[in-house]
Design brief:
Layout: H1 3-14, H2 19-22, E1 34-40, E2 47-56, E3 61-69, E4 93-98, E5 103-112, E6 117-124, H3 127-134, E7 137-140, E8 146-149, E9 153-159, E10 163-169, E11 176-182, E12 184-185, H4 204-213
Parallel strand pairs: 1-9
Antiparallel strand pairs: 1-4, 2-3, 2-5, 5-6, 6-12, 7-8, 9-10, 10-11
Length: 220
């Protein structure tokens, strides 16, 4: 068991008592109310997030900070292009992590539905990224106005093969790549082993793409 796993598991066991306090929106010194945790996936490469748990720099745990479907495009007639990542990723589907300080570790457990396979990854957020999240910058917004903006959106792209790629960005500030992690197969399988190995169904439109073109491993 590596150091990161020990950190998260220790927090999960010993800090449950502070979760009620985390939920009330207090306990941080950020220059904004909360930061956003979002998830996306390459076109047609559908993902179901079992859980995304956050450990902040104060050692507090925020379980189920995000779960459910990652943002994805599924154009008709096999017109999607899942290879690689966009130069300007969207913020993804997600939630504000209310009450959290800056992120230290993010644990993600997800189903890659096109394979299908279940993965887990421990993503350590570098100190340089946290400094970017605190730095105010003048920015020109799409509405034609200048503002002082922060990179308070943390976006994670999940791809087949257990790939997790992270960006930090702001409403009016460009995305900066943070890190890339290759997760491990979770031997418990989907739903923490409680579904008898049954995955969520892949939509017909994505199934048709994969049957025709396959999964572009190595492009992420």
């Amino acid at each position: 068991m590596n150091k990161t796993r020990l950190l998260l598991n220790s927090c999960l066991l010993s800090l449950l008592s502070v979760l009620a306090g985390c939920a009330n929106g207090r306990g941080h010194s950020l220059p904004y109310d909360a930061w956003f945790l979002g998830f996306g996936a390459p076109s047609d490469m559908e993902v179901w997030i079992e859980t995304a748990d956050v450990v902040d720099i104060q050692g507090r745990v925020f379980r189920q900070a995000m779960s459910g479907t990652a943002a994805i495009q599924t154009p008709p007639d096999n017109r999607g292009n899942p290879r690689g990542w966009p130069k300007r990723p969207g913020i993804g589907a997600g939630k504000l992590v209310l009450g959290a300080d800056l992120p230290q570790v993010i644990y993600v457990n997800w189903q890659s539905l096109v394979e299908p396979q279940t993965y887990e990854a421990y993503i350590e957020i570098p100190e340089e990224t946290r400094q970017l999240m605190l730095k105010p910058e003048r920015a020109y917004c799409p509405d034609g106005k200048w503002t002082t903006d922060y990179r308070n959106f943390l976006t994670i792209g999940l791809a087949p093969g257990g790939i997790a790629k992270v960006w930090v960005q702001g409403p009016c500030l460009e995305a900066i790549e943070v890190t890339r992690v290759v997760g491990k197969v979770d031997p418990r399988g989907p739903y923490l082993g409680r579904s008898g190995g049954r995955y969520r169904p892949l939509r017909d439109i994505s199934k048709a793409y994969v049957e025709k073109f396959g999964v572009p491993y190595g492009s992420w």
